[in-house]
Amino acid sequence: MQSNRYHAKCEGDCCSLCCTRIENLGVTKGHNVILENVNIHIHCGELTAIIGPNGGGKSTLLKALLGEVPYTGKFRFLNSKGDRSIEPVIGYVPQHLDFDAGIPASVSDLFVACLSKKPAWLVRPGSVRKRALEGLRKVNAEHLLDRRLGALSGGELQRVLLALALHPVPNLLLLDEPVSGMDQGGLELFYSTVAELRHNYDLSIILVSHDFDQVYRHADRVVLLNRTVIASGTPQQVFSDEKTLKCFGITGFFMGGGVPGGKEGGEG
Amino acid sequence: MMLQAWYDIVEFLLPFEWAEHNFMKNALLAVLLVTPLFGLLGTMVVSNKMAFFSDSIGHGAFTGIAIGALLGGLKPLVGAVLFSVVFAVVITIIKNKSRTSTDTIIGVFSSTAVALGLILLSSGGFNRYSSYLVGDILSVRPNEIILLMVSFAAVVTLWVLIFNKVLLVSINPSLAASRGVNTLLVDILFTVSIAVVVTITIQWVGLLIINSLIVLPAAASRNVTANMRRYHFVSVAISMFAGISGLIASYYLNTPTGATIVLIAAIIFFVLFLVRRKFSH
Known about the structure:
heterodimer, A: alpha/beta, six-stranded mixed sheet, 23% strand, globular, B: mainly alpha, ABC transporter involved in vitamin B12 uptake, BtuC, 0% strand
């Protein structure tokens, strides 16, 4: 794990890579403190997995980064010299689409709506179609271009959304529990695609996940979030941390040697 | 005058008895301008499950007309449009900010608006305004057709400019926000355009059936379409077909025009509903 050694060496500053810094972030809804004092530092090219119990604020953190939920503290994206924060392009793959499954919108319509100024109800621009096909090819989904959104399986929809999130190529990619409703084959394909992307594009990826097995195998860093950062580090460090075990109430669960298995279900 | 050209065209193209009267020529032009708008806006009203919302907009417009009538001076329509726009904006903002169920919020506002409208109108002699409940498209006057032309141009332009954003917000608000869409603003523009179209046309279509004209063509269209272009095209086509054939049928059958149009649209809906399996992708 060469990349881990490299990043461990320069923990704390950006060491000539671009990076994302979340400093002292807090979110309060009414009288409820959802998140407080959250500090996360992500280098480009890293896949950071956020795990934590339900209601621990994982999805809220993503919503704050998207600007949907007001927050206190700082969220900065620094360029490679680490001296200037820029406005990052954020790609987002939602947990699930809560849309009307009967809507007559095709995958192509979704790409036109995102990538073109011309209205999807009037035209179908060839240039956007070409870009959409290229994007879908990267996630093995080019055959889905003219399918209706409501007719896609969970896994197919997630891959389409991933392809969409890469147009334009983002600085920061937010994936919210992208595995819900996916079969094992689709899951494997999704994670290998994501892992490949971060090397090819030098992306920072934040992944909210319940699938510890996949997190253990693919994440560079893991952050355990329960209102604040409880533990963070490499997957090995976090999964063997006593606080992690305590948080999920399963003593010794991860200690059985090698790759921990099991999935935690439910909403984030 | 512009309308004279229209009369000449109709007389040349449609040498039928129903097309001899000027009020039918006016009504035909009004139908040609209004039904495409219902077909267009209806697509996203249906996809966003906003049928109840657009219904309550009609109720807001009704109250607006009452307030406009009471204020006098200005035409009732100006007051009505202003009121229903404010009404639509307020509901949209509350809907976005509150955790209460959308249905409940709309229900509360809608019934309040109707009650207020009825009380205000009864103080000024209700019968004068009862036409707003049923509507009469044959009463369209030439100067009102100009207003319809302006609304037509405005709504089509708006739909070209904001449709992609409306679609994204409909599919997933967070996804839309991540792509720089101001979701609340898009929501407001969309609901305001519905409010304006409904308020302007309510005197010819009537409060009781205006919502059916928005919902039915789109609801029928989605039975047999799988992408946005066909969805819109079929919806507009159904809306216009029902409008024109309803107008002509009502002339010969001596039935209320608006209700005849709705009935034809409803028949189309049921037919397409029955054949929908053949089109599912």
